[in-house]
Structure formats: structure tokens, C-alpha cells
Write a structure and sequence with these properties.
By secondary structure, this protein is an all-alpha fold. It has helices at residues 17-20, 42-46, 56-75, 89-103, 123-139, 155-187, 192-203, 206-216, 219-234, 238-251, 259-271, 277-307, 319-322, 335-348, 363-370, 378-402, 409-423, 433-440, 451-467, 469-474, 478-492, 512-534, 544-571, 574-584; strands at 28-30, 37-39. Strand 1 (28-30) and strand 2 (37-39) form a beta hairpin. Helix 6 packs parallel to helix 9 (219-234), helix 9 packs antiparallel against helix 10 (238-251) and helix 12 crosses helix 14. The longest helix is centred in the N-terminal third of the chain and has 33 residues, at 155-187.
Length: 585
């Protein structure tokens, strides 16, 4: 055994400047008059001192403190439903779920006063609300007093609720983003410094900050579980990927936007390059077990309520049970569990609510503007939405199935979720966060900081948050909207504050057609803001500007969907394969 004195510490390899920052990476630009190199956009300049010499474990805490500051200051502004009777918005909905889960038996969670923000999310949200409600009740019992706390606007409650979003995000979403970008950048042969640039861009994503920390929701918990699933798959651990994705579905059913792509990938790795029956069975069993584990605490609570003598007789029979072709024995031991699961599914999938809510930038709202869809039966609209969504998601899912490669996951999830957002049933404007996340993490991949990708990521995000402006305006979030959005645009070099992503001669730049398309969309967004601020709509069309916003947004999102599908098709190698096959014919 060698003595301590004989031990030589491993020499740290010197990193050359050009190996980290380079014109071909998208982080440097070249001045064509002086031939001097300069940072391609402001975010590169801000992180320039951390290039090569500073450990990422020094950089990451600094990044987290800065992005945390913007989150917390956004939370100082208004929120959904503040002093807005009668329903008081999403803030009251989340608070109410904490109230009912801490005070009522489990068997009443999905039945209690459904007209006042009845619980309509999966069990993991209920558990999350229960924990936060218990902690909050310990601090101040009045915040979640049953019935008496409804529509409470206590400033200290606001601080607590904002803190729960912040802590939940930093426990789940932020670690998931860091770990995923670390693995994804390695997979794509992107250096650590460039991955840090992508990390800042993802964590400063304006839509996520404004909705979760402004409007008030917990979307980042679901998005964090999704990223954890993708990260596990990127690390070659598909079984853990299944567990985390069930967690995403168990927190918010909107994670179904990603489900077809996840299914296509998992099925693909079971069949290509060779059939792997063991892997297929393992994935199936782990998924089933994960769903069982998800519902287990809920069902144990239901059975415990039965043991305590809490009857189901006063509760309405769930529609799913009514529609069953066979009748169940109401005296059987399993009936309460089936009864509660049926009600939870009925609440989670609200087909009775209609094709879309409010003015959302998707296909159906755009069509409804010119041809009223409410004249058609609900069943017909549901089938039309199913058919349109299927047509939209089949191409990316089929590509991922044929080429189940880890590096294709972000593009496939982006394209699939765009298809859902544009064509699915019961879409909210906030659901645009789902396609924006996988599209934004493309910045951490190969060539992700080049204008050819960065500009498309920027357009999607700027368009996405712009379509949510009417919602944010109602919540008195205009100032955070402009500050966060314009700051993000400045840092990454996007209009209306910068044109660095569109400079002529930039390496890895956009085609002329793409530049024209992008800049015209940005121009429309700017003009719309001016008109909306200073020109009142006609009295007989009070929603004219909001509808125009939705129509333009739907068109722009459709273009983003097509770009994601094309990019996925190109990156999968199917284009090259098709060309080679055509040459051999």
C-alpha cells in the first residue's frame, strides 16, 4: 500500500477557452469588420466569468439564488381571484383543497361541495394539499378552518401559500431540471458551461414563473416529475422513468399530454433493435405497481372510513358506476374502494365542461370564432377532438417508436404536447406550459444555443406567455409580465429588445423564410399590446382583442408544432435513411 506522501493528486486538465465558447456552439459571434469574437447574447456575457475555471457547484447556487429572487418578487404581486367574488380563482381552489383534505374524511374528498372548487386533480395533489394544510394549520388554524376560511385574503396566508409553491418547486422541479440538463448535455456532447447557460434560460422561463408564482398554481411539481422521468430514461433507467411519470400523472392529469410519446419510447426500446420481453413485462408491472402505490393511501383511508362507520349512502353514485353493464354488490368489502376510484376518475376527467375554457389559443377556439361549435352535440365534439388529436400526435410518436433514442425525447414530447394543446378537449391557456418545457430544454442539447434552435425556442416562449397576457392582466400581473418576459428576451437575444438571434451571417442562423415569419409574429405581438392598451374594443365585441390574441397564438403554435415534428424527423435520421434508400433504387 502506498504511503500518503507518495500519493499524487490528480492533475486538473486545463480547459482551453475555445473548447467551451465557440462560434459553432452558438455562444460566440464574430464581428465581420474587426473579426473579433464576442458573446453571442447577453446571457453568455453574464456567465462568461464562470467559463472553464469556476466549479459548477459554485455556479449553480448563484443561479438558484438569482432565479429564486425573481420568483419571490413575482409572488409579491396579485394572484388569481384576489378580492374577486364569487369564486376567487385558483388561489382559493388550492387553499380550499388544503382545507378539505385536512378536515374531512378521505371518502369525502372527491364529493365535498363540488360547486365550490371541488377536488378535481389526482390523489398526489390531494396528498400534497393535505401535508401543506397540516403545516399551515399548525401556523394559523384560521387559514384552513372548514367553511369559515373560504375566500380568505389574509396577507400572511398569501406569504405561506407563495412559500409552498417556492419550496415545492425547489424540492422537485429545480433538482429535476439540473439533473436532466446534466445528463442531456452529456448525451449531446455539450460542455458544462453551456449547460449552465441553458439552465438559467429554463429556470427563468417567463411562463412558468408568471403562472406558478404569479397566477398561483403548482405546475412545476408535475413538470419536475416529468423531467425526472426523462432524466431516468436518458440515464438508461426506464423503470424509474415509469415511476416518475406515474408521479407526474398522479399530480396533474395534464401530464397525459406527454403520455403517448413516453409510451412510444418505452415500446420502442422493447422492440428495437431486438424484442426484449423481459423489459416489456418489467415496464408493465412497474407501471401498474406505481399506479397502485399512488392510490394506496387514498384507498386505505377510504377503507378506514368504512371501518369507522362512515356511510356512502348520502353520496351520489359516480356516473362511471351507473354506466357499468354489471351491478356491484354494495355490501362487499371492495365496493367503497371502487366507488371512490370511480368518483375520482369522474372528477379528474371532466368531459362535461366543454371543448375549451375561456379564450385559449388552440384550433377549436380559432374555429369557434368564425363558426360556432356549440351548436353541435358534445359527443360529436369529443370525437372530433379525439380524431384531431390523434392525427396530430401520431407522427412524432411513430418517429420515436421507430427510433427510440434518448436524445429524441425532448422533441417528441414537445411535438406531442403541442398536438394535445392545439387539438385536445378541455384545454386551458395555462396548458401551454407543457409543450414549452421540453422545447426550452432543447437549449441544453447539441446546437441548442445556435440561432437555428434558440430562435424557435424563444418564439414559442414569447408567444406562449403573450397568449396568457389576458389571464395575467386579470390577476394584476402586468408589471411582472413585462419585466420577466422582456428580461428573458434580452438575456437570450430575442425581439423586441434584441435581434441578435436574427443577425445576418450568424453561424447556425435561420433561413430567410423563418426570419420573416418570426419577426412578423413579434411585430404582431407588439402591435397587439399597443392596440389593447390604447384602443377600446367595439361595444358589441368586447372580447375582440382577446380573440385576436387567441387566433394569432393558435397559428403560431401550429407553426411551432410543425417545426418540432420536422426537427424530430430530421434528427431521427429518417431523412438520411430515406435518401440513402432512394439512391439504391
Amino acid at each position: 500500500m502506498a504511503s500518503p506522501a507518495a500519493h499524487k493528486p490528480r492533475r486538473r486538465k486545463r480547459i482551453e477557452e475555445g473548447s467551451l465558447a465557440h462560434v459553432t456552439h452558438g455562444t460566440l459571434d464574430r464581428d465581420h469588420t474587426t473579426h473579433a469574437r464576442k458573446p453571442a447574447f447577453p446571457l453568455v456575457a453574464f456567465l462568461w466569468p464562470a467559463k472553464g475555471t469556476v466549479s459548477q457547484w459554485v455556479t449553480i447556487p448563484l443561479i438558484l439564488m438569482v432565479v429564486g429572487l425573481f420568483r419571490w418578487t413575482t409572488g409579491l404581486w396579485g394572484y388569481s381571484g384576489f378580492q374577486s367574488p364569487p369564486m376567487h380563482g385558483d388561489f382559493e381552489a388550492q387553499r380550499h383543497w388544503m382545507e378539505l383534505t385536512t378536515h374531512l374524511p378521505v371518502s369525502q374528498w372527491y364529493f365535498h361541495d363540488l360547486e365550490w372548487w371541488g377536488l378535481d386533480y389526482p390523489p398526489l395533489t390531494a396528498y400534497h394539499s393535505w401535508i401543506l394544510g397540516i403545516v399551515g394549520s399548525y401556523i394559523n388554524p384560521n387559514w384552513f378552518a372548514l367553511v369559515r376560511s373560504r375566500a380568505l385574503d389574509d396577507p400572511s396566508l398569501k406569504i405561506y401559500m407563495r412559500a409552498t409553491v417556492f419550496i415545492s418547486e425547489y424540492l422537485i422541479y429545480v433538482p429535476a431540471v439540473i439533473i436532466f440538463l446534466r445528463r442531456y448535455s452529456r448525451l449531446e456532447r455539450v460542455n458544462v458551461w453551456e449547460a449552465s447557460i441553458a439552465l438559467v434560460a429554463v429556470l427563468m422561463q417567463p411562463g412558468t414563473i408568471l403562472i406558478d408564482h404569479g397566477h398561483f398554481q403548482y405546475n412545476t411539481v408535475m413538470l419536475g416529475f416529468t423531467l425526472a422521468s426523462m432524466s431516468s430514461m436518458a440515464a438508461g433507467r426506464p423503470l424509474w422513468g415509469c415511476v416518475f411519470f406515474v408521479g407526474a400523472l398522479g399530480f396533474k392529469q395534464m401530464a397525459l399530454f406527454y403520455a403517448p410519446a413516453i409510451f412510444a419510447y418505452l415500446l420502442g426500446i422493447c422492440l428495437f433493435p431486438r424484442v426484449d420481453v423481459i423489459r416489456f413485462l418489467s415496464i408493465a408491472l412497474v407501471t401498474i405497481f406505481s399506479f397502485a402505490l399512488l392510490y394506496l393511501p387514498f384507498l386505505l383511508g377510504v377503507l378506514y372510513d368504512k371501518y369507522r362507520g362512515i356511510s356512502l349512502e348520502d353520496l351520489p353514485v359516480p356516473p362511471l358506476l351507473v354506466s357499468l353493464p354489471v351491478s356491484l354488490n354494495e355490501e362487499s368489502w371492495y365496493y367503497p374502494a371502487v366507488f371512490q376510484v370511480a368518483q375520482s376518475v369522474h372528477r379528474i376527467f371532466p368531459f362535461a365542461r366543454g371543448l375549451f375554457e375561456d379564450k385559449v389559443a388552440n384550433v377549436w377556439c380559432a374555429i369557434h370564432t368564425f363558426h360556432k361549435l356549440n351548436r353541435y352535440p358534445s359527443v360529436l365534439l369529443q370525437r372530433a377532438a379525439l380524431a384531431a388529436t390523434s392525427l396530430a400526435i401520431i407522427p412524432p410518436c411513430f418517429i420515436l417508436f421507430l427510433k427510440p433514442r434518448k436524445e429524441l425525447l425532448p422533441l417528441a414530447l414537445a411535438a406531442t404536447s403541442w398536438g394535445f394543446f392545439l387539438c385536445s378537449y378541455q384545454v386551458h391557456e395555462k396548458n401551454v406550459l407543457l409543450p414549452l418545457l421540453p422545447m426550452t430544454i432543447l437549449l441544453g442539447g447539441e446546437g441548442g444555443l445556435l440561432p437555428s434552435i434558440r430562435a424557435w425556442v424563444g418564439l414559442a416562449n414569447m408567444l406562449g406567455v403573450w397568449t396568457m397576457f389576458p389571464l395575467l392582466k386579470r390577476d394584476e400581473l402586468r408589471v411582472p409580465y413585462f419585466v420577466i418576459t422582456l428580461l428573458w428576451a434580452y438575456l437570450l437575444g430575442f425581439p423586441p429588445v434584441s435581434l441578435s438571434a436574427y443577425h445576418e451571417g450568424t453561424t447556425g442562423g435561420l433561413s430567410l423564410l423563418s426570419k420573416i415569419l418570426h419577426l412578423n409574429l413579434y411585430l404582431v405581438m407588439v402591435v397587439w399590446h399597443v392596440v389593447e392598451a390604447f384602443v377600446p374594443p367595439p361595444s358589441d365585441k368586447p372580447d375582440l382583442w382577446v380573440v385576436a390574441n387567441a387566433i394569432v397564438g393558435a397559428g403560431g403554435f401550429g407553426i411551432c408544432y410543425l417545426w418540432c415534428v420536422w426537427r424530430l424527423f430530421w434528427k431521427s435520421g429518417l431523412v438520411k435513411q430515406a435518401k440513402e434508400e432512394s439512391k439504391t433504387l
